[in-house]
Write a structure and sequence with these properties.
This protein is an alpha/beta fold. It folds into two domains: about 90 residues, no CATH class; about 170 residues, Rossmann fold (3-Layer(aba) Sandwich). About 45% of the residues lie in helices and about 10% in strands. It has a six-stranded mixed β-sheet, sandwiched between helices. Helix 1 crosses helix 5.
């Protein structure tokens, strides 16, 4: 008879990663996301960073924007998504398919597993090291991570940076997140009333980006704004593309004032429709 295995605490499914674990995880993730991807052939590779509240539909919008506005094939971008890091690692199996006392898989997921394990990874240097590794390798990158300092780092590494702000209404974001949490198991709460605990995060990020997206854009070469509230996908003309540097002969101080005012007006107009 096999020795029984007990899990006295679900946290045991994802222990705090050691430095050796992080090194191993970086190699696993890097190999997975760069497989079959070509290095950039230009001196200024692209980094595209989508920002917006959970449920804004950033991944879908990226595919549409690149289809309409990029000369690089969508499949040639390396994609790094903060929310999908766990998908590449062995511990995701334990989160999605908990073992029973005999070590056999139950087909049952651990409702708070994604949140807990993801937080433990975010507290390490895994993401910064991984991003820096991609930048040094000169890949064209879609970076789905909500930290503007990665834009600065990319600029310092010679990248052409595009910041994409995806607008969405609160009700639509809540519905999309509720479905995703139910399908994938990204729960903060087991109650669906407030989108399984995601509603406060949606509210906070809707407010934050309305104020901060403009300032983030100053570190980009292009700032793109698109509204993803409709049931149909945005078309080519729905993407508002803004050059975020002064044109020849325009003073930087005058440009900054007019630039900020212009973007505030665009965002206000797009959110009102």
């Amino acid at each position: 008879m096999s020795k029984k295995k007990w899990i006295d605490n679900p946290s045991k499914l994802c222990p705090t990663p050691t430095n050796n674990d992080i090194e191993k995880y970086i190699q696993i993730i890097y190999k997975a996301i760069t497989k079959g991807k070509p290095h950039a052939i230009t001196k200024a590779p692209q980094l595209i960073m989508p920002i917006g509240a959970p449920g804004a539909g950033k991944s879908t919008i990226m595919e549409m924007m690149i289809k309409y506005h990029s000369d690089i094939d969508y499949n040639n971008y390396v994609q790094l998504d903060n929310d999908k890091i766990l998908d590449y690692l062995p511990i995701s199996k334990d989160i999605n398919n908990i073992p029973d006392i005999n070590g056999n898989r139950t087909g049952i997921g651990y409702a708070h597993g994604w949140e807990e394990c993801n937080k433990k990874l975010q507290s390490t240097e895994l993401i910064p090291i991984l991003v820096n590794k991609l930048l040094k390798a000169n890949y064209n990158i879609i970076l789905n991570i909500h930290h503007y300092d990665f834009l600065i780092n990319a600029q310092l590494n010679g990248y052409f940076c595009i910041l994409v702000y995806v607008l969405v209404s609160r009700p639509i974001a809540n519905e999309r997140v509720k479905k995703r949490a139910k399908d994938i198991g990204r729960f903060f709460s087991t109650s669906s009333k407030y989108s399984y605990g995601w509603s406060p995060i949606i509210d906070r990020m809707l407010t934050n980006y309305r104020e901060k997206a403009i300032w983030y854009s100053l570190w980009a070469d292009r700032f793109v704004i698109v509204n993803n509230n409709k049931k149909k996908y945005p078309d080519k003309n729905d993407f508002k593309i803004i050059i975020t540097h002064p044109i020849h002969g325009e003073s930087k101080s005058n440009y900054l004032k007019s630039h900020i005012k212009k973007i505030y007006n665009i965002i206000f107009h797009m959110q009102s429709h």
